[in-house]
Every structure is written in C-alpha cells, then in structure tokens.
Design brief:
The chain is of the alpha/beta class. Helices cover 39% and strands 15% of the residues. Its cofactor is [4Fe-4S] cluster.
Length: 499
C-alpha cells in the first residue's frame, strides 16, 4: 500500500513522465510511502481508477497535459464518486494555467508552476491534518541547485524500453505568444557537473536514448558544449534529441555537431514562420539570414537529423504565405517538416489577436484554431488533412524517391495540396490507411501525371528494404540484397529512414 500515488496518462507507452519523477525525488522523508504509477491515455478510465485505488492511497497527484486533459477530467470524477475521501492534487500546464476549459473542479488542490517544493509541502500538511484552505496554489520557482534530480527514479524497464527525458535548463528568453515557455522568461540552469554525473549513471545502466526537453538547448554554450562532449565521448549507437534556437550556431557548436555519426543526433528547430512581419506580430525573433545559413549547414555538412516546425493559422498569415514557407524549407533540406495547427493555450497572450484577426478556437483540447479572417473553417479543415497526409507520405521517410513526383518546379505546397485533396476524396479518412493502401494510392495518383515506368522505378527504390509481403505485387522486384543493409541501431525507425 502507498499513501501517495503520482500518476499521469502518457500519450503512449514509450513516453515517461519526467515531472512525476521530479516530485518523487523531492518527497524526502515521504518518499518511502510514495509510488509512481503511469498509464496511457488509451486505457479504460475505470480500470485506471481501479488500479489506483487498489493501493488505498490517501493522496493522488496527477499530471495534466493537453493530450490527456479530457481523460483526466473523467478520471477525477470517477475517483471522487467511488472514493470521495481520497485527496486529489493536480499539476502540469493544463491544470496550472487559467482558464480551465475542461472540468477539473472536483480536484482538491491545483498547483500552478514548478511543483517540486510545493507538492512536498502540501503533502506534509495534508498528512499532518493541517491541510490549507487555499485550493489553487501558486508555487514559487524552486532553486534548481537545491532540488533533487529525478534520474534514479527511472526504472530498469524505462531505461530498456522507453524514452529517457532529461533537462539541463528551464525557461526561455523569448516571448513567442503561442508558447507557455514564454511565461518564464528567465533561463535557469541545473548544476552541470551534477547533471553529467547523473547522465553517466544512466549510461552505465544502459540508457542510450536521451531526449532533452530544454526549450533553448544551444543558448548557453558552456552547457551545450559539455553535454555534446559527453555524447561524443561515448561509443555509438546512441540517440540524443535537442530543441535548438535556429539562429544561434557558433563555429564551435557547428564543429561538434558535424562530428556526430549518422542516426545519433536529432535537432528540433522551431521555425513556425519565415515571414518577418508575421513573426514580429507574435513577438517571435526571426533572424532570417542566419536561420537559412544554419539550415544549409546542418543539411549539407552534418549527419544530424532535423525536425523543423511550421504552424498553420498564425495571426495575419495567409494560406499562400504558409505555402511559401513550406516551399522554402523543402528547397533547403530533406529533413522532417512537422506541420502544426495553431493552438490557443491557457496562460499565453495569443488571445490579444482575436478581435483584429478574427481568431476563433475550439474550447476542446488541443484548443486548435477553427478559423480566422484569412482562413475559413473549411480551409483549416483541409490544412489539418494536409498536415496528416504530409506526415504519412513525406515525414515518414517511406517515399523519399517517389513523393517529389507529386510536385514540380519547386511548387511543393501547391502540388501536395492537390494530392492531399485527391487522397481524401479516395479515402474519406486521414487515419488507418495501411501501407499497402498508401502505396497503391500514390502509384495511382502519380501514374496519372508521369510515365508509369518512372513512377514504378521510384516506388520500387523506396520500398526495396521492406519485407516482400508489404510490397504490392505490381512493384515486387528482386531486392533481397538491399533488405538487410541497416546495422543495429537505437535510432528511431522514422529518423533512420530519412538519414
């Protein structure tokens, strides 16, 4: 039995909740009576409640995020109906910022902000029968030099099968209006020597996949250099993911990135828009020349996998403007380009544009844009389908040779938009389209526009490393010598396809 349970609903099994592990690591004398119990958002809510209550907890702390807010609301209501005396404490961005757009009212307490100290103190008060009257608790920023690091709370199963999330800093110096990180403008760093010692322990335990959640990893060059040196000193295979500022790549950083072997390094680069006026309108700094130069460098002189982000629906940006952004990025790199739909998160200042730009958002997670004065509801819907099909056919890396046949003369957006509309007409769906169906659809579409021999040669090249049974009979060729080319790797499959 455990008096305190820490839980959340992860998006999938491979994910781990770093926030829960911070809370657990900082429970001090209460840690022996606490336990982390994670679930996924696809599990039955009543089964989750049953599992939690089987521990007979007095306190349940729940991390609430945009992807699990609706399910968490249902979980809270279920728990309170069958075990009303169990104290429920919420934290995380979906609970900590107002207004709440899902019903979290049944919770006993909500902690807003970084909860390592506040959660411990609240639990102590509750267990000593001196619970505070205040329902919404604003946590002071903890001193990152004094809190306990969470990494020994990763279990062996986590190390072997799941992402290991880590961080070297918190906060962001920028004020991008769509992002919650802009609320904490001051960047604070963890003690670097202690952090590297923890990473070494994780490495010795077998961890080979490290995902840094820092918003601006390459802002502090001392930290960036030493952390990159940590990985460069190790024997591959390993996989390290960093979110980086696109305009800040000093020569020393470029030199280190160029030394990483293929498949070992992923850089997430938040472009969002390449239009200086649009960027200025949302308080996003945009040093366009430096961004372009750095993307070219990373594309042509390193083996790093890039994950570039663009957003549909930013205030003042037309569909044509978004299309130009996409065309430009595809001309610069063959890397993954993630197309996101603008979301209006509680706690951000994005709503100040609502009147001037006619911004209308859903009140249901993920609070995505429904329309504005430049994009109708129908156009937003089409762009959501565009984004989904782009992920399937472009970002997946399954069709690197054949997908460029969808567009011509560099008009990537126009060509793929037409393809996206055609695909939806054929499927009336953006989900559960099998690989065999993807291949057949792409084959049919391309053969309407190109010589059949060219199309089938490109598709055969793309599919040559797949098992024969996944290749339609009309494309099967003798490709056995290509099928087992890939060496053992910890690189995620999607990234390895685009290497």
């Amino acid at each position: 039995m455990h008096t305190i349970l820490l839980t959340t609903l992860n998006a999938r099994y491979a994910h781990t909740a770093l926030g829960l592990r911070y809370l657990y690591a900082n429970l001090h004398e209460l840690q022996p009576i606490a336990k982390i119990v994670e679930f996924t958002m696809n599990e039955q809510i009543q089964s989750i409640a049953e599992s939690l209550l089987s521990h007979s907890p007095r306190i349940i702390g729940i991390g609430v995020y945009i992807w699990n807010a609706a399910q968490t609301s249902e979980l809270i209501q279920t728990l309170k109906k069958v075990s009303p005396d169990t104290i429920i404490i919420l934290g995380g961005p979906e609970a900590g910022y107002l207004p709440h757009r899902v019903d979290l009212s049944k919770a006993d307490y909500i902690i807003s902000g970084e909860g390592e100290v506040a959660f411990y103190e609240l639990c102590k008060s509750i267990l000593s029968n001196d619970a505070p009257q205040e329902h919404f608790i604003k946590a002071p920023l903890p001193d990152l030099k004094s809190i306990n690091l969470p990494y020994n709370a990763y279990e062996d199963e986590d190390v072997e099968h799941r992402y290991i999330y880590v961080e070297a800093s918190r906060g962001c110096p920028f004020e991008c209006e769509f992002c919650l990180s802009s609320i904490d403008e001051k960047v604070r760093n963890f003690p670097l020597d202690q952090l590297l010692e923890e990473f070494e322990i994780l490495w010795q335990r077998g961890a080979r996949s490290f995902k840094f959640i820092d918003r601006t990893f390459n802002l502090n060059m001392t930290f960036a250099n030493r952390i990159l040196d940590f990985f460069l000193s190790k024997e591959p295979p390993y996989f390290a993911h960093f979110e980086v500022i696109p305009d800040h790549f000093p020569d020393v950083l470029k030199e280190k990135i160029a030394r990483f072997p293929a498949g070992s390094l992923q850089l997430e680069i938040g472009i969002q828009t390449l239009d200086p006026l649009i960027a200025k309108g949302i308080n996003r700094p945009l040093k366009l020349d430096k961004i372009m130069d750095n993307i070219r460098f990373l594309e042509n002189e390193t083996r790093a996998h890039m994950h570039l982000d663009l957003i549909v629906g930013l205030p003042g940006e037309s569909i044509e403007g978004f299309g130009r952004n996409l065309d430009t990025l595809v001309s610069l790199t063959h890397s993954e380009i993630q197309i996101g739909i603008l979301k209006n998160l509680s706690g951000t200042t994005l709503s100040r544009h609502d009147k001037a730009h006619g911004m209308v958002y859903s009140d249901i997670p993920p609070y995505d844009i429904l329309q504005n004065n430049l994009l109708s509801f129908a156009q937003i819907q089409k762009m959501k389908r565009f984004a989904r099909f782009w992920d399937i056919f472009y970002n997946s890396g399954s069709f690197n040779k054949s997908i460029p046949l969808v567009w011509s003369d560099g008009k990537v957006f126009d060509g793929f938009y037409t393809f996206s509309e055609w695909i939806f007409d054929q499927t009336l769906s953006t989900w559960k389209i099998s690989l065999e169906r993807q291949i057949a659809l792409l084959h049919t579409y391309l053969c309407l526009r190109h010589d059949k021999a060219i199309v089938e040669a490109a598709l055969s090249d793309d599919l040559s490393q797949r098992p024969e049974k996944t290749i339609p009979f009309f494309l099967r060729q003798s490709t056995q010598e290509k099928k087992n080319k890939e060496a053992a790797s910890v690189t995620p499959k999607r990234q390895s396809k685009r290497a």
